[in-house]
Amino acid sequence: MDATFVLYPNMTALDFVGPYEVIAAVPVVNARFVAATLDPVKSDNGLTVVPTDTFDSLKSTDIIVVPGSGHWKELLRDSGGVVEWLREVHPTTKWTTSVCTGSTLLAEAGLVSKATTHWAAREDLEVRGVEVSTDRVVFDGKVVSGAGVSAGIDMALRLVEAEFGEMVAQAVQAGIEYDPQPPRAYDSIPPEVLQGLKQAFEEAQA
Predict the structure, then answer these.
(1) 100: annotated active-site residue
(2) Distances in whole angstroms, Cα of residue 39 to Cα of each of 9, 16, 53
């Protein structure tokens, strides 16, 4: 089974590395990395990944994982071919998934009706006709979305459970020793902190 991770400049590394460590841990999975060209792709904080395939060469896959970016508004204006590739390849997949603001790319491609995303990007989902959920993981048919960044691990574990069964998912979770114990939930963070973060996101994309 091929699992293809979409790469593009300024993607958030944990959005695809987290799911990669979960999904690629299943022995029958063959991980691939697709981008516009075979040139190395740099994430928003500098991690560089070498693609195995291009949008022109890879026309089908079993699983797609679309990471998000802190620069999602720029990406929605010019996705560098990501949106067009998603529209083309989605009919061939068993699962099409996103992490964080990657769901806005699925929405731009017209592939999802209900999804979750990073809290700062919820409006960008809503204006594209998507029913926005605040859940950490959302299944919408064969489209699965995870909320912000770290939720990609949760999304991938749920995906592994759906595809390979509970025992496999539990084994993978034990293997990566994933036992999240966050200090606080999003809804309990002071509004002034969230507003400051949102302003920082907006300024970074101005």
Answers:
(1) yes
(2) 11, 18, 10
Active-site residue, selected from the candidate residues 14, 23, 63, 100: 100
Query: How many Cβ atoms sit within 10 Å of the Cβ of residue 73?
Result: 17
71 in Cβ contact with 124 (< 8 Å): no
Identify any residues that bridge with 65 across adjacent strands, giving them in sequence order.
5, 97
Adjacent-strand bridge partners of 41: 49
DSSP string covering 118-135: -GGGHHHHHTTTPEE--S
Q: Tell if the pTM clears 0.70, that is, is over it.
A: yes
In sequence order, which ranges of the chain are alpha helices (DSSP H)? 13-23, 72-77, 82-89, 102-108, 122-126, 151-164, 166-175, 191-204
Could you read off the pLDDT tens digit of each residue along the chain, which spans 206 residues?
Answer: 999 999 999 999 999 999 999 999 999 999 999 999 999 999 999 999 999 999 999 999 999 999 999 999 999 999 999 999 999 999 999 999 999 999 999 999 999 999 999 999 999 999 999 999 999 999 999 999 999 999 999 999 999 999 999 999 999 999 999 998 765 566 677 788 778 877 887 777 76
Q: Record the tokens describing residue 197, joined without a space.
A: 């973060």
What's the token pair of residue 20?
A: 């990669």
